[in-house]
Design a protein that fits this description.
By secondary structure, the protein is mainly α. The protein has helices at about 5-30, 45-55, 55-65, 75-90, 120-130, 170-175, 180-185, 185-200, 210-230, 245-255, 265-275, 280-290, 295-310, 310-320, and strands at about 100-105, 115-120, 135-140, 150-160, 165-170. The relative contact order is 0.06.
């Protein structure tokens, strides 16, 4: 739901849910003396979250929209339930941004993809609060040529396992060359090793760290740019780009049967004296030397010749004489 409809959602359900939460509190405080009395109805995920927070329903929803849901342009009840279920399962507080929802800009006509991010403090809380956690060790390697460590190794010990879980994250793989990786590369690599080791050791899924979320968004943006370039209109055989180097090279490779018998000195004379003639034999002798069109003279000659023969059919006819 959009942020405008969030207020309406809040007011429509606040009275009903407040009564339900109050009844649940009363049922918890006063257990029934008679065994035949009906059991209290189970609380849903939203009511349980409100009860744990100690806030009123209105205050809880308002703070949640301002924190864990603030990065979304639109969200649904299902997105809210997913966020609260993950928060409950992992023991995180969405009101303090230990876990939050973010989105990838959608393609036209499609719904935005929403995924959930756990900050570094949230990952540390997950690790330390796990009942089987028995310690963690972080090792920094010797520095490389750039005076940065080659890798960070994280080892997590569990009480119920004989063998510890170790993960190495390498600087050359993880470094993005931007943001905090430029100012605090060691800290970023240490966090990356800790997160990946915790994910394997405790079987965590469905959540990402902030660095992963940023990479996902950047990859989506690059894919969109490549898609726009690939769908740009072009004429056949690249003739729409005949004034660019790439287009001229395309023309050369489209006609590989060009004669290569003349010498370079004669071709050089053609470039200087007959660059505007448009004669097919001159073109053949000049392309023989300027076959990849890497020099200014060769480029200019073929541009002039293409202007004299603007259509694909006339070019092919002249080259095959």
């Amino acid at each position: 739901m959009s942020r405008k409809s969030a207020t309406r959602f809040q007011s429509e359900h606040s009275g009903q849910r407040l009564n339900r939460v109050q009844k649940s509190k009363a049922n918890i405080a006063h257990q029934p003396d008679q065994p035949n009395m009906p059991k209290p109805e189970p609380m849903n995920i939203l009511d349980r979250s409100v009860l744990r927070s100690g806030l009123s329903y209105d205050s809880f929803v308002r703070l949640l929209i301002q924190s864990a849901l603030s990065r979304l342009t639109i969200w649904t009840q299902a997105d809210l339930d997913r966020l609260l279920m993950l928060s409950e399962r992992l023991g995180l507080d969405p009101l303090n941004n230990e876990i939050y929802a973010t989105e990838i800009s959608p393609d036209s006509g499609k719904k935005a993809r929403i995924f959930f991010v756990v900050g570094v403090d949230g990952w540390s809380k997950i690790i330390n609060s796990h009942p089987q956690f028995d310690g963690m060790k972080l090792v920094e390697s010797m520095p490389g040529d750039d005076e940065l460590p080659l890798y960070f190794e994280c080892t997590i010990f569990r009480k119920d396992r004989k063998v510890a879980t170790s993960v190495r994250e390498y600087m050359y793989e993880a470094h993005t060359g931007q943001g905090a990786w430029l100012t605090h590369p060691r800290r970023m690599l240490r966090h990356k090793a800790m997160v990946q080791c915790a994910r394997i050791c405790f079987g965590l899924s469905g959540i990402y760290d902030p660095d992963e979320a940023q990479r996902i968004q950047e990859t989506k943006t690059k894919d969109k740019e490549l898609k726009l370039k690939s769908t740009a209109p072009r004429k056949s055989n690249g003739f729409a780009y005949k004034n660019s180097k790439e287009g001229l090279i395309d023309v050369a490779y489209n006609f590989p049967d060009i004669s290569t018998t003349s010498n370079s000195s004669n071709s050089s004379n053609h470039l200087e004296g007959d660059s505007n003639s448009g004669d097919a034999s001159n073109l053949k002798s000049n392309i023989k030397v300027e076959r990849s069109f890497q020099t200014d003279k060769g480029m200019q000659y073929v541009k002039n010749w293409l202007n004299a023969y603007p259509s694909e059919a006339s070019i092919h006819s002249a080259l095959t004489k």
